[in-house]
Amino acid sequence: MNSPVEESVNPNGSTTGLGHVVGDSVDVSHGPILYLDDITVSFDGFKALNRLTITVDAGELRCVIGPNGAGKTTMMDVITGKTRPDEGTAFFGQTIDLTRLTEPQIAHAGIGRKFQKPTVFENHTVFENLELAMKADKRVFASIRARRTAEEIDSIVETMETIDLLPQADLAAGLLSHGQKQWLEIGMLLMQEPQLLLLDEPVAGMTDEETAKTAQLFKSLAGKRSIVVVEHDMEFISEIAATVTVLHEGAVLAEGSMDVVQSDERVIEVYLGR
Ligand SMILES: Nc1ncnc2c1ncn2[C@@H]1O[C@H](COP(=O)(O)OP(=O)(O)O)[C@@H](O)[C@H]1O
Ligand SMILES: [Mg+2]
Questions:
Q1: Quick one: which atom of ligand 1 is closest to the CA of 41?
Q2: SS3 112
Q3: How far apart are CA 113 and CA 76, in angstroms?
Q4: CATH number listed for the domain at residues 4-272
Q5: How many whole angstroms separate alpha carbon 184 and alpha carbon 132?
Q6: Model pTM greater than 0.90?
Q7: Is the sign of the CA dihedral 135, 80, 16, 110 positive or negative?
Q8: What SS3 class is residue 23?
Q9: 8: which residues sit within 8 A by CB, 6+ positions away?
Q10: pLDDT value of residue 3
Q11: Whose CA is nearest to atom 7 of ligand 1?
Q12: Ligand 1 in contact with 73 (CB < 6 A)?
């Protein structure tokens, strides 16, 4: 019997949906892993993004902040192919033109996205959730390699250590706290080895302790992965960020270290308040 995922395998052998990720295919030889230039997105004449230009280097942990409606989520929609820009350039590494790819192709190329609400499989254990995330990648080989390899188990255990859920390996995901579910979902993304991770408000609804642990998690990933985080929690951002980009009315208002951005008059005016 064919599983739904097997049915989604297209003729050239790659999978769609969660996608098979070929992480090392992205060319970052010149530094940037993400390059958006002059991106404009209009909704009925309203410019959600208005000539947005932003560059993220390989291995960077970039924070994006800005008032509601600034265009943060729309920016992520453009990067992941959910929304097509009216104008502008969007490149993943040197060679991959994001404006020419579909959503599954972009996931396949190595961009992983986490939405705000956790979407783990509640009736499956932590281990199984991570295994499923990995298998979504490799199900094309399921018939010839039905059993888990030692290498696969190692990689699941390593991820459980990274997200600090090793003691909960055999616990049903539905029994985890909200914060732990968020970590599990980050772990599920990591199993697919994306080169660029996009996270929209990952600490929303977390306790202070969970937020602090998430900051540690992101810092531990810095350098190994390129990460773009949209967040409102300024304490969290100051904990993790090297460079902060402030969006306002669909464009970059300010960019720099937390100190520089926090003391920028325009940023104080539109976002931080007096
Ligand atoms: N599909 C859409 N149709 C119409 N307007 C939209 C759509 N998506 C976003 N917008 C508008 O674009 C602006 C930017 O939205 P968004 O990117 O969600 O901002 P943020 O994530 O920074 O709060 C908002 O004014 C929003 O109402
Ligand atoms: Mg948003």
A1: 12
A2: strand
A3: 8
A4: 3.40.50.300
A5: 12
A6: no
A7: negative
A8: helix
A9: 15, 16, 17
A10: 39
A11: 43
A12: yes
